[in-house]
Every structure is written in C-alpha cells, then in structure tokens.
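Instructor's aside before we start: the two examples that follow are unrelated to each other. I chose them only because their records fit on one page, so don't look for a connection. First example below.
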Amino acid sequence: MSHLQIASHAALLYDCAEVTDMGSMQPKKMLILNILEILKKHSNENHPLTQKQIGELLEKDYGMIVDRKAIKRNLANLMESDYPVRTKSEQIRTGISKETGEKEENVACSDFYYEHAFSEGELRLLINGVLFSKGVSHRQGKDLIHKIESLTDDSFQYRTGHIHALPDNQPENRQLFYVLEVLDDAIGKKKKIEFTYNSFGTDKKLHPRLDEAGLAKKQIINPYQIVTANGRFYLICNHDSHENLAYYRIDRITDIQILKDPVKPLRSIPEAENGLNLPSHLAEHLYMFPGKSERVTFRAKKYLLNDLIDWFGNDISFSDETETDVTATIRVNINTMRMWALQYALHVKVLEPKELAEQIRTDLASALNCYGI
C-alpha cells in the first residue's frame, strides 16, 4: 500500500471526536504518516514508545490532539500494511463482544517501535568508513555522516555527536560524488569515459595535467572497477594504446563524461586474461602502482609478523624460521614491493628476484647521498 493510499485510508478512520487539529499545522488525513514519522525519529527496539508518548509527540510536533483509539487503529494499519512497525509487548485480553454478547479474546499491543534497516553497529561502521576516506573532504564527510545518522532514530545522533570533529585538512574535489556516479554508470554500461586528471599545486588546489600544447589533457580510458585502497578511491582501467591495467585516484578526476564507444574487453588485457580477482589483485598492488607482479622472497625480522599479515594477508608463506628471523614469499607487484621494502629497510632484506634487490640497493645509496653520506 502506498503512502497516498494509507493517507486516504487514514482520512476514513478520522472523526472529530478522535482528532483535534490545533491551528491546522497538519492536515488531519496525515495522522497515520505523522505517527510513522514519530516512530522513525524517536524509537528503536531498545527505546519503544507507548501510545501515550506517541500522542504527546503528535501534539508537540504536529499540533494534533489525538484520541488513543485513533492512535491504536493507525498503528494496527501500519503493521498490517507491512511497514516495519513492531511491538515489544502483546497481551491476550478476554472480554464480551458488544455485537454478539459472547466472550471473545483480543490482542492488546503496547510499546511500539520502528525497525530500522541498519543496526547501530552497522551505522558506526559506515561512519568510520567515511572518517577514514582520505579523499573525502571535511565538509563532504560531515554531510555524509549527517545522512547516515538520519537512517536511525535521534538517540543515535546524540550518542555520536563527537564524531563530527573531522580534521579539516583534506583538499576538496567538489565533483567527487558526481564522478563516482558517472563511473558506476559507465562501468555498468561498459562504455569508455573521458575526463581531466589533476595534480595539486603549491596553492593546495587541483590543476589539470597539460598536453604538449599547454591545454588540459583529456584522458580516454576503459573503466573496469572502482576500489578503495589506503583510505582512497581508485579506478582500475586501461588505455587502448597499452596492454596493462592503469590506476587513477578518483578524487583527482574532474570533468568526466561517458562516451558512446564500448570498452575494450577486460580479458583482452594480458594480466586480466583470467578475469580480475580483486582480493588478490589488491594484495599484490598495495600502493596501486601499475606493472607486472612476480614472486618475491625476502628475509624479515619476526617481530614484523603482524605487519606482514596486515599488508599481504593469508597469501604470504613463511619458511626457514629462526628465533629472530623468517623468510617470506609472496606474489606482488614489483613497483609496490620496491616501495614497501624501502619503507621497511631497517627490518627487511629482499632476496629474489636479484634485479629487484639490486634496484633497492641503488635506491638506498641514492637516499644516503641526499644526506651527504
């Protein structure tokens, strides 16, 4: 039953003895919708409302003095119409029917609440996801959190008010959510896209990357998947002129549009010829660098085990364990491993492949040279 149908049904239930409209703040036929809104805003499974409390809120919020029987009848209509209105208490009461004069049993309900789609734990998880999204600005984050809080009753807002204290240090791409919508649409339709890719200047603002003529360079790519890594949104895609996958930070994309041309089939790209196993792919591309993946072996201090599992997951294997060290093997993107090994240079030594080990040696020598050593 639609809201309009329910509202019309409510009008039939109404009579002047049951509802008094104070100042015509709300049409009387809106009673059933007002009750539904009160339950959504002020109740949950742990905080139900009695019919008396609902009546008090109808008067306070909508200027309507409502008879208890009208409230009871409209609550029953909401539950019968499959709205997520529940009751915490049901009692069987015995009485005499006014119509037949015979004994009859009736179910008396009390303590009503709205069954929200998300639990408090799930909402907190969503809020944490916003807080740790580095591509989302302070203003955008606050707006999102406010919308998430509105998915449940107002008691949740009061308990999480402190979460609004987001750090106001992230530059803002005002097109971020629009870009995400267009990308999702293009991926679903399997169409190419065109956009401007930007970099930050010393003014902390996004500036388009330029072509040889000094104009904003337009990127035309085949979009395949939106992923998150290290708190940021990335687009996994491909350029027609290349045979490998590419990665773009979505918070640096502007002026996006969908083209008519179909995307290049994902399986035509060598590294994705068997499809794209996202968990494995992301584990191999920790920093979302392009390039091939290879089997890498390195020696690490055992006190790094927690970090190794955090970074590489269950795909990592261990051997040659001693009291202090262990050998680890993982299939990983070579550019990613080069950066990661430099980050953990005091605790890790790459053994294979030899070319990677030599490159890291050169990187470390260059780093020492920066400090005049």
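Example two begins here.
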Amino acid sequence: MIHSMTGYAVASAGITGGTLNIELRSVNSRYLDIQFRVADELRMLETGLREAITARVSRGKIDCRLSISTAATGPRAQALNVAALDELRQLAEIVRREMPDAAPLRAADVLRWPGVLAEGTVSEAELREQAAAVAARAIAELAAARAREGAKLAGVIMERVAAMRKSVATVAPFVPEAIAAYQEKLAARLREALGSADDERVRQEIAVFGMKIDVDEELQRLKTHLDEVERVLAKGGAAGKRLDFLMQELNREANTLGSKAASQAISDCALELKLLIEQMREQVQNIE
C-alpha cells in the first residue's frame, strides 16, 4: 500500500491525577525527521516514542506533542510528602534550639508549608505503560490516515499513467506521415531547383531525415518507465524516492521526443506528456 507523508492523529488515556495526551502531525520531508514537544516530567518517554514511530513510519517530518492535562473538576487525591515533612521537622528543631520561646508549629501551618501536601502523582511504571498504549493508538491512527491519502494519490497517478499511454499510442503513426510529407516536399523542391527530382538524392535526404526524427527509442522507454511506475505503485511500501526518479526519466524522454518532433501533432503530444508528468511529480512529492 502506498502511504502519503501527510497525516494527523490524536489519542489520550486517563492516568492518576489527569489525562495523558499525544498528538502527531506529519508533513512532507526528504527523510524521517521526528520533533518532540514534551514536558520535562515526560522527557523519559521520548526514546520509547521515537522507537515506536520509527517502526511504523519511514519518511516524513513528524511533530509529536505529549502532555498531561489535570482534571478541572472533581475531587483530587492528596497525600503528605514524607520527605518534605521530614525536612520541615528538622527546620523546626533548629528554630527551637535557636529560639526556645518560639511557638510550636500547628497542623494547619504544617499543611500550608510548600510541598508538604501534594496531590496524588502517577508512578513512572504507570506512566510508561499508559504512554505505550496511547502512542500505539495514535501511531495506528496516523498510519491509517496516511494510507487513505496514499491510496488517493496512487489513483491520481494511475489516471495520469493511463492518459500518457494513450498519448504515446497516438505518436507512432505520425512519424511515417511526417517522413512521407517530407519526401513529397523535398521532391517538389528538387524539381523546382533542378527541373527534375533525383531519386537517389531524395532517398539519401529521406534517410537522414528519418534518423533525425526517429522516436521509436523514446516511445519504448516511455512505455517501460510507465510499466515501472505501475509496478512500484502495486508493490507499495516506501516508494516516493523511486517514483521521483521515474518522473525524472519520463520527463527526459518527453523532452527528447519534443526536440525530435517532425510535426505539430508530435510536438503537441510531447507537451501533453510533460504536463501529465509534472502533475504526477507534484503528487509523488507527497508519497512516503
């Protein structure tokens, strides 16, 4: 299956004290480029996320945003921070030694001390487990979105391939017609200049002209490249770079065909081929 490099996905999961959110945005890029926007407390999840994305995506610029949103309403689990409580106790003992007359701390004072009363926090094990599950869903959604768009891009390219085959099929009959017209024109000029047409000279001139306008090689190469485009699309996978190369080769043959054009019909056909190739090239730039 052909995949586009453009896609979007979002997923979330509830954790202790809030919701873990992941957002993935994908756009075109020559290589795989993963950028993270992660809060400091979630930085340890970045390596696992990178590995998960790399396993499913081979090309494109991926913007990954990972965050935790706390619940706006409802009761919140709270607990005493033992470490902060011990620190406060040690400070209180120092104060009592230095200032024996100081009043002892009340419970309300202790609870108001910064860091003593903390909301329930998620454990690292739970965070890693939930992050892996959320990332799997988001990456699967991103891959599905890229696959849907890739299928449409492949359909557009196949339409252009069919149109090119039709144009190529119309070129071949024009070459003998161009040679016959040139032969008649050359004979008329010789009769006008010499009073008679030298058959041997006419044959020589026709042979030289025929070699100059022979486009059979270009037509065969165009057909071969179109066969390869169809094969690559049918095979699927990471095909963008291969298709981009084939677009360059198709354009090369179309240019040569145009330079050898011996009639307006062949010239028009070459221009039509170049237009179709350019339309395909624009779509190929979006393919993984």
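The CA atoms of residues 9 and 141 lie 6 Å apart.
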